[in-house]
């Protein structure tokens, strides 16, 4: 939604969060195409007038939810790294992949990736966010003389990372976030000695 760009109060932010939470729950239960604005306001325990203070319609809340989660995926992946600093992959530990914990904490949303009747275009969001992150922020130091900073290699890494994460979700998050993080670190260590952020 392009209107209402002013900073919202904490109460307004809470209200919007409750609408998005209700919307996500309903998509998980009924499928995206079957959720209505009436469903959302009833689940969130607000009235339609309150919904329309913040959103034009169902596509509007959908777009905000998608954009918000896309930004969060990228932001969470960057939080612990200082711009310009070179990180050795050998020094990484299970806390180095905060994205994995973020996904685990937001399972309700990421389970939408496993549904047939889900938010339109959602399937491509996770690999696209990871790819943009690699392209914009990460320069890898290869083991050997391979070009691992090309767009094609970063695209391959992004889809591989997203694939492992979605497989984890598909299997009911049986492995802990620490185990998944360690697997991803092990894969990264197989071809990269380190990376620079920013």
How is this structure best described in words?
With 198 residues, the chain is mostly helical. It has 2 domains: 56 residues, Homeodomain-like (Arc Repressor Mutant, subunit A), CATH 1.10.10.60; 136 residues. Helices cover 58% and strands 7% of the residues. It has 9 helices and 3 strands, in the order ααααβαααβααβ. The chain has a 3-stranded antiparallel sheet. The longest helix is centred in the N-terminal third of the chain and has 21 residues. The two termini are 30 Å apart.
SSE run: HHHHEHHHEHHE
Which band does the percent of strand residues land in?
5-15%
Largest sheet, strands/sense/barrel: 3 strands, antiparallel
The helix/strand class is mainly alpha
Shape: elongated
Strand order, sheet with most strands: 1-3-2
Q: What's the helical proportion of residues?
A: 55-70%
Mean pLDDT, all residues: 93
Which regions have little confidence, pLDDT < 50, spanning 5+ residues? none
Count of discrete alpha- or pi-helical segments spanning 4 or more residues? 9
Q: Find the count of extended strands (DSSP E, 2+ residues).
A: 3
The N- and C-terminal alpha carbons lie at a distance of 30 Å
Report the radius of gyration as a whole number of Å: 19 Å
The count of domains is: 2
Topology:
Blueprint: H1 10-30, H2 37-44, H3 48-54, H4 58-78, E1 86-88, H5 98-105, H6 107-110, H7 125-137, E2 138-142, H8 151-170, H9 177-189, E3 192-197
Antiparallel strand pairs: 1-3, 2-3
Give a brief outline of the structure.
The protein is mainly α. It is built from 9 helices and 3 strands.
